[in-house]
Design goal:
Helix content of chain A: 40-55%
Oligomer: heterodimer
CATH topology of chain A: Non-ribosomal Peptide Synthetase Peptidyl Carrier Protein, Chain A
Distance between the termini of chain A: 12 Å
Number of strands of chain A: 0
CATH topology of chain B: Peroxisomal Thiolase, Chain A, domain 1
Radius of gyration of chain B: 19 Å
Largest sheet of chain A: none
Structural class of chain A: mainly alpha
Number of helices of chain B: 10
CATH superfamily of chain B: Thiolase/Chalcone synthase
Largest interface: A-B, 20 and 27 residues
CATH architecture of chain B: 3-Layer(aba) Sandwich
Number of domains of chain B: 1
Largest sheet of chain B: 7 strands, mixed
Number of helices of chain A: 3
CATH superfamily of chain A: ACP-like
CATH class of chain A: Mainly Alpha
Shape of chain A: globular
CATH architecture of chain A: Orthogonal Bundle
């Protein structure tokens, strides 16, 4: 399961304390997670975990939970 | 689906002009620290952009670009039958800027000139409009300008836009040439329900300029705007950009039976590298056939496709052998358009700085 790794990346990309990245955190909940932040999260996860999010899923990847779920799905496939 | 095929018209020349002043994203004074800047650069691919100095307009850049094009083409101003000005950064509310350009460029008084206030889809729309007019055969030589001064209508304290957008003017020379031309094919798209994804709320007739609209406000931490400034709602744009452009290109390919393997160049609106790469992969185009100039110039809206052609494809497009190209412009409106065309023997000068 990639949950810890994904949360660590999100915290690092957004430059916030790891404790801020809770399961129910979404884009817009904190100032650091704006549209540019969201793009940075997705692109960094793709790069560091060597995965590629499908085009049709990208728009839904706007919360910690949705990103963790999709990463788990892609890495278990 | 609305589609169009134009015959008897070819791209004969291209030019581009950018301001000399460069802003590097790494050193922009709007970030808490350099990590924030690096994050933007890494996720968008945009390292810097060119910015006009106060007092310089898109039409000033345009005059330089058109003068360079006329020289390269060996055309006199009186040879030009039509000039279309794709731009939203108009000089005045009235008249349309193309009228002023007719005088500044010494074009004929019976020249057909008009403004086309498109954003990022503008070069493709402009090609279809000017090409269509020319295909009748009476307008022999035309210039399609795609220009924008994005830095003048976006707030410099808006961290969501300042690192991404730049200024540029481009000029494309079109000739009526039944002997040496091949069909140009177009597909169109629009979704006006998304007009607030990229918009300037104040300054038009719906919301006229008020004292309040001129006052800068902190709309979210670290993001300042006036009512007259352009707003870019990044998440809405992202959702649009990953959905419409790939489908538009797929529709173009299917409708006109395009063999993707025969395509030499995929020319995308330079929105940001992450989105453009998703579009490229969606139509299975190899990276070496997809040029970018956004790292150097940022998003220059309607000028981005022709600026990519001038700054990155000069050698390929000026050669004897025709290149098979597909292009997609997408953005403000929300509007998008895709096209297929062939280009060879295109006279492309050195990039001009203002």
């Amino acid at each position: 399961m990639m949950e810890t790794q994904v949360k660590e990346i999100i915290a690092r990309v957004l430059n916030v304390e790891p404790g801020v990245i809770t399961d129910n955190l979404s884009s817009g909940d904190i100032p650091e997670w704006d549209s540019v932040g969201n793009l940075a999260i997705i692109s960094t996860i793709e790069q560091e975990l060597n995965i590629e999010f499908p085009l049709e899923d990208l728009f839904d990847l706007t919360s910690v939970q949705s990103i963790v779920d999709k990463v788990n799905q892609l890495t278990n496939a | 689906m609305s589609q169009l095929t134009i015959n008897n018209v070819r791209i004969a020349g291209m030019s581009a002009c950018v301001p000399a002043h460069v802003e590097d994203n790494l050193t922009l004074p709007i970030y808490k620290d350099q990590n924030d800047a690096l994050k933007v650069i890494a996720s968008t691919g945009i390292e810097r952009h060119h910015k006009v100095d106060p007092g310089t307009t898109a039409s000033d850049l345009t005059v330089k670009a058109v003068e360079g094009l006329l020289k390269d083409m060996g055309w006199q101003p009186e040879d030009v039958d039509c000039l279309a000005y794709v731009c939203t950064s108009r000089d005045y509310i009235a008249p349309q800027t193309s009228c002023i350009l007719q005088d500044r460029l010494k074009l004929r008084n019976d020249c057909c000139v008009f403004d086309l206030p498109f954003g990022c889809s503008g070069w493709v729309y402009g090609m279809s409009i000017v090409g269509s007019l020319m295909s009748h055969g009476t307008l022999k030589r035309a210039i399609l300008v795609a220009a924008e001064t994005n830095t003048l209508n976006r707030n410099p304290l808006d961290t969501a836009v300042r690192p991404l957008f730049g200024d540029a003017a481009t000029a494309t020379a079109l000739e009526f040439d039944p002997e040496h031309s091949r069909p140009m094919n177009f597909m169109y798209g629009v979704d006006g329900s998304g007009y607030q994804a990229v918009w300037a709320p104040y300054g038009g007739t719906r919301n006229p300029v008020t004292v309040e609209a001129l006052q800068e406000k902190e709309v979210s931490p670290g993001v300042f705007r006036r009512g007259i400034d352009m707003i870019v709602n990044g998440m809405d744009v992202f959702g649009f950009a990953i959905k419409r452009p790939p489908q538009s290109l797929k529709d173009l390919i299917a409708t006109f039976n395009i063999d993707v393997e025969s395509v030499d160049l995929l020319l995308l609106h330079q929105a940001n590298k992450f989105i453009d790469e998703k579009v490229r992969k969606a139509i299975k185009m190899p990276p070496e056939k997809t040029p970018y100039c956004l790292e150097e110039y940022g998003n220059v809206t309607s000028a981005s496709i022709p600026l990519t052609m001038v700054s990155r494809c000069r050698e390929q497009l000026s050669g004897e052998e025709e290149k098979h190209c597909i292009a997609c412009g997408f953005g403000v409106g929300l509007a998008w358009a895709s096209m297929e065309f062939y280009a060879g023997n295109v006279k492309i000068g050195e990039l001009i700085t203002y």
